[in-house]
Every structure is written in structure tokens, then in C-alpha cells.
Amino acid sequence: MLTKKEADDIMKMKGEVRGVVFQTDATYLKIKYGEEGLKKVEENLKQLGYPIEFEKVKAMGWYPMGLRGLSLMVIKDTFNWDDAAVKAMGNMAPKFSFMVKILMRYFISLEQTVKSAPLYWPKHYSAGELVIADYSEEKKYVNIRLEGIKFLPVFCKYIEGYFSRIIQFALPDKEVSSQQIKCSYRGDPYDEYKVSWI
């Protein structure tokens, strides 16, 4: 379990995030572990000095980015998840997000999804920038880069799953996978993810 000092350090992350991310986590956790599971996460966050009442979070409200990182770490610790479990939650998040449902009406093709993705990022996050670093429909991949912000590794696993699902929405009959290929936490200048399909 995280220490108070580790939690305090995580809370120093720059930027803010929309409350909808906490709502999608809550939905996923309730499906997987019931109300009791969600309460365990809330209690563990409270013990670290950063309480979140998931049911009271406002979807369009702005919350500290550090709270996003901390909540993911606490979720991972509470249920003893490995990276694959974090990625699975990230993969399901777009299915539960009302913001994604609204925006996906405009992402009617893969090309439109890739073109619109950089505009979508600041609707969720106040820090960092999403850049399409490389894209080839013919070679069946897109490289998505996050610049100007340093994420915790747990968030990187989450976002791997998230990006897979967004591309899956545009390619419902394809098998989509993702992998982080650059990591700012490991010293790269940015985070980059390769999303591919067959």
C-alpha cells in the first residue's frame, strides 16, 4: 500500500482532469466488485488524506491530475492488480464515459477518429498535448504521443487500454491492440503508444 509521503508526491502532478474519469472508474469497479469494492477504494484514499466520494464527483468538474494518478494507484493496490488488469479497466472506460459517447458520434471513420483525437484530449485533461505521431491505414497502425506531461506508469497502462478501445470504436470488426513504445517515466521525452489492428 502507498505511504502518505508517496501519495503527497503523486498529488504534485501538474494539471487537472475532468470528473468523468472518476465516474467511469466507479462504474467499472461496481460491476467488477460491487458497491463494497468501491467503498474499499474510497476508504483507502481517505486513509491517505485524499478522500474521493465517487458518487459525488461532477462529470464536467475539474479535479487535480494528481488525484487521478493516486486513485489509479490505490485501485491497483486495493485489488492487487497487475498491469493487464489496469489496461483492461482503461479499455472499458470509453464504454462508460458519456463524454466519449457524445464525441464518438463525430468519429465515424478511422480517419476522422485519428484527425479528431488531438482536439478531444483538452476536453478531458488541462495539461499535456495529444499528437498523432504517425498513422498508416495501409500498414494498420497509429502512433499516439502524449507530450508536455509526465504520467505514472499505472496511468500509462490504463491509457494503453483506453486508446485501443477508441480505435476499436472506429474499427468494430477488427482486433485492436496497443503497446507503449516511449515512456517519459523511463526518461523518454514523451509517452508514445502504438495502436495496431488486424
In short:
The protein is α+β, with helices and mostly antiparallel strands.
Q: Which descriptors apply to this entry?
A:
single chain; about 200 residues; alpha+beta; four-stranded antiparallel sheet; 6 strands
Report on this model:
The chain has helices at 4-10, 20-47, 65-78, 83-96, 98-104, 110-124, 153-170, and strands at 16-18, 62-64, 129-136, 141-147, 176-182, 191-197. It has 7 helices and 6 strands, in the order αβαβααααββαββ. A hairpin with an 8-residue loop joins strand 5 (176-182) and strand 6. The chain has 198 residues and is an alpha+beta fold. The strands form 2 sheets. A 4-stranded antiparallel beta sheet has the order 3-4-6-5, with helices on one face.
Strand order of the largest sheet: 3-4-6-5
- The best one-word shape is globular
Arithmetic mean pLDDT: 93
Radius of gyration using CA atoms only:
16 Å
Order of helices and strands: HEHEHHHHEEHEE
Poorly predicted tracts of residues: none
Distance between the termini: 39 Å
Structural class: alpha+beta
Question: Main sheet, how many strands, which sense, barrel?
Answer: 4 strands, antiparallel
The total count of helices amounts to: 7
- Strand runs, count: 6
Our estimate of the beta-strand percent is 15-25%
Helix content: 40-55%
Give the topology:
Layout lengths: L3 H7 L5 E3 L1 H28 L14 E3 H14 L4 H14 L1 H7 L5 H15 L4 E8 L4 E7 L5 H18 L5 E7 L8 E7 L1
Antiparallel strand pairs: 1-2, 3-4, 4-6, 5-6
Helix pairs in contact: 2-3, 2-4, 4-7
